[in-house]
């Protein structure tokens, strides 16, 4: 378990406070998985970090492409959510910052799907983007450090639309990791709890790339390690049995798939 991160989520007539819980467990979560994954309460995908025993890596850019997932919503699924994003930071236990941009597919209070784009510099609030997003749209996201600021970009290739945000962070950045994540956000009031992970089917990240210590690479770059993360609901959490394991990364490190599974004991997809 890593740490809670505050973030808002669209709700009926207001923004409700959410949080990100990043992190890993020391042991693989299921022998049936094709990769030795680590457990997270709400992240599924890959994090690039410095190689064990190697020099620290400062990541200054991350990018990835995916098709916007369509969530299966019904009145019984109200409040479920699935976010897909690319970002920097937030993996380390002591991290207090995450720099990320992506899309959400949520089930609203009536059980209807809602799709939107956003970026967030944790611990600051989420910012909704005026970028149209519909199921099946091909989107590319990137986060890059430029000087003392950040450039966050989201391109909807299907609709030929682009949003670029140039931001000067109010506090220090966390550049110790890069991530490609499908996430179940968490609702925070007096305490935080993960929301049910909406059934998004599967999402494939492609065109994965990062820059660490001024060297460009993918998930299989020799200068850092790629840590697979499987979303595993905590006992008694709002997520019934839904889980999301990552597949093996492609040999060139430029793609992988995360699949929603109703049975937490089921195996991850291969390939």
Give structural attributes:
271 residues; 8-stranded mixed β-sheet; mainly beta; Jelly Rolls; disordered C terminus; 7-stranded antiparallel β-sheet
> Please, what is the CATH homologous superfamily?
Peptidase G1
| Alpha carbon gyration radius | 17 Å
SS strand fraction = over 45%
Domain module tally: 1
* Structural class computed from helices and strand pairing: mainly beta
Summarize the biggest pleated sheet: 8 strands, mixed
* Average pLDDT rating: 81
Query: Strand tally, please?
Result: 19
Shape designation: globular
Task: Give helix and strand order, one letter per element, not per position.
Answer: EEEEEEEEEEEEEEEEEEE
Spans of at least 5 consecutive residues with low confidence: 1-35, 264-271
> What topology, given as strand order, has the largest sheet?
3-18-4-13-6-7-8-9
What is the rounded distance between the termini?
27 Å
How many alpha or pi helices? 0
Give the proportion of residues in helices: under 10%
CATH class descriptor name? Mainly Beta
Can you lay out the helices and strands and say which pair or pack?
Layout: E1 4-11, E2 14-21, E3 38-40, E4 43-50, E5 59-67, E6 81-88, E7 98-107, E8 113-122, E9 126-129, E10 138-146, E11 149-156, E12 161-167, E13 178-183, E14 186-188, E15 192-194, E16 202-212, E17 215-217, E18 224-231, E19 256-259
Parallel strand pairs: 3-18
Antiparallel strand pairs: 1-2, 2-14, 4-13, 4-18, 5-10, 5-16, 6-7, 6-13, 7-8, 8-9, 10-11, 11-12, 14-15, 16-17, 16-19
